[in-house]
Specification:
- Keywords: Flavoprotein, FMN, Monooxygenase, Oxidoreductase.
- Belongs to the NtaA/SnaA/DszA monooxygenase family.
- The chain is α/β, with parallel strands linked by helices and 425 residues long.
- The chain has a single domain, classed as Luciferase-like domain (TIM Barrel, Alpha-Beta Barrel).
- 38% of the residues lie in helices and 15% in strands.
- The radius of gyration is 22 Å and the shape is globular.
- The relative contact order is 0.16.
- Flavin mononucleotide binds next to strand 3, helix 7, strand 10 and helix 11.
Length: 425
């Protein structure tokens, strides 16, 4: 079977400074409309899924004044989107640190049933101090400890999903028996971090169970992904880093290696000139104070730095218990081409992953280069926040990718697993 390119789009509305960009309307109603529009446009482009990041906090105080409010909770948002779309996958970020396994298992399988088998779970370990402060006063769990908790969380969630087999439901009306009791599996989990009896009370979905995504690319994160991820969301700032990462993932020795879908920030214009103009607009409108506040969460402190001066590398912690991929990724960006602080902060608007700006051909060329060069199996596209960018991508870049035989012309199936070519577990 020919290798298929996979495309997902980041669904989070108004991230960063985008609330301020020309043509953007704010407020709950307008944001809901734009989230629905993003999903419908992605489905029109036969994308695999819409993807929601999430961090269980409102960020550090330094960013509060500069941040929009309508960052809707992802399970609630995707439940709404499951009624606005038919084929598009719905991937939600859920914390394996602060969200109880029973809640996660139930919310995820509910979304999978509501959407007819289109749910995915991006397993994260919540790294932010500001998140830990919302779940007690014990501070952030140590990095590797978070992954140990995540290990058990995933184990419990799977046991709960396995409470019901494909043949547990018998629906014997004359006998008044709905489930074959002998086929209800009670987890009775007693672990280091959780005690969860179960069962969950949900039959398997049309795709069996939600697809497991994972984000976190430190050595511990990669080992976790090797054991659990079906798809890895990562941030690799350039082709060589992407290729090295994918090679390592493929050396995990799994029969079916996880798919690797790095983030890709994009700006597309009908011409190179128009794309440059759009990029200049974002450069003029992005809020450096917001980026500085966000970077503090991953132990990079540029408070008071001269925006037009060189990036002081002393601002980067030597190591972190927070987000090791981010710290390493941003340090790499800060040392590429001697940017000023302002240029570096602008670069962080699409985080520490790859990005491309240009005509539809240039954007398609970059996607093809990574895909055929084995640096990615697909991408989580991060539109810049300028209105209409995803429409331009679907109307002008997708046709090029199809003509080159890289991307599907239509959906072959109607579950997320079908889109990703993953078998039912
Ligand atoms: C591309 C990418 C996206 C991430 N998205 C989220 C997110 O939405 N929410 C979150 O709490 N953590 C997110 N993380 C953080 C990781 O899930 C991870 O738990 C943590 O940062 C530690 O990972 P690491 O040190 O292995 O990178 C993301 C990490 C990466 C690499």
């Amino acid at each position: 079977m020919t290798r298929q390119l996979h495309l997902l789009v980041l669904g989070n509305p108004r991230f960063g400074s985008s609330w301020r960009y020309p043509g953007v309307v704010n407020g709950p109603a307008a944001v809901l409309d734009s989230v629905i529009e993003t999903a419908k446009t992605a489905e029109r482009g036969t994308f695999d899924a819409i993807f929601f990041a999430d961090t269980l906090n409102y960020g550090l105080e330094a960013a509060w004044a500069h941040k929009a409010t309508e960052d809707f909770e992802p399970f609630t948002t995707t439940a709404a989107l499951s009624r606005e779309t038919e084929r598009l996958g719905l991937v939600v970020t859920g914390s394996a640190t602060f969200q109880a396994p029973y809640h996660l298992a139930r919310q995820l399988i509910s979304l999978d049933h509501l959407s007819g088998g289109r749910a995915g779970w991006n397993v994260v370990t919540s790294f932010a101090e500001a998140a830990a402060a919302n779940f007690g006063d014990n501070g952030v769990l140590a990095h590797d400890e978070r992954y140990r908790v995540a290990e058990e969380t995933l184990d419990v969630v799977r046991k709960l999903w396995d409470s019901w087999g494909a043949d547990t439901v018998v629906e014997d009306r004359p006998a008044g028996v709905y489930n074959d009791r002998s086929k209800i599996h009670v987890p009775n989990h007693k672990g280091e971090f959780f005690t969860v009896r179960g069962p969950l009370g949900a039959a398997p979905s049309r795709q069996g169970r939600p697809v497991i995504f994972q984000a976190g690319s430190s050595p511990t994160g990669r080992a976790f992904a090797a054991r659990h991820a079906e798809v890895i969301f990562t941030g690799q700032g350039d082709f060589d880093r992407g290729r090295a990462f994918l090679e390592q993932v493929h050396s995990f020795g799994r029969a079916t290696p996880p798919l690797v879908t790095p983030s890709l920030g994009f700006i597309v214009g009908s011409t190179e000139e128009e794309a440059a103009r759009l990029e200049q607009t974002v450069f003029e409108q992005f809020i450096p104070e917001y980026q500085i506040g966000w970077l503090q969460e991953v132990d990079i402190d540029l408070t008071g730095a001269d925006l037009d001066g060189p990036v002081p590398l002393a601002a980067f912690a030597a190591s972190t218990e927070t987000h090791q991929t981010a710290l390493a990724g941003y340090r790499a960006l800060a040392t590429q081409g001697n940017p000023t602080v302002r240029e570096f902060l602008f670069r962080t608007v699409t985080a520490f992953g790859a990005r491309v700006a240009g005509s539809p051909e240039r954007v398609a060329d970059e996607i093809e280069r990574w895909f055929t060069g084995r640096a990615a199996d697909g991408f989580v596209l991060a539109p810049s926040g300028l209105p209409g960018q995803l429409d331009v991508f679907v109307d002008h870049v997708v046709p090029i990718l199809r003509r080159r035989g890289l991307f599907r012309h239509e959906y072959a199936g109607d579950t997320l697993r079908a889109h990703l070519g993953l078998s039912r577990p």
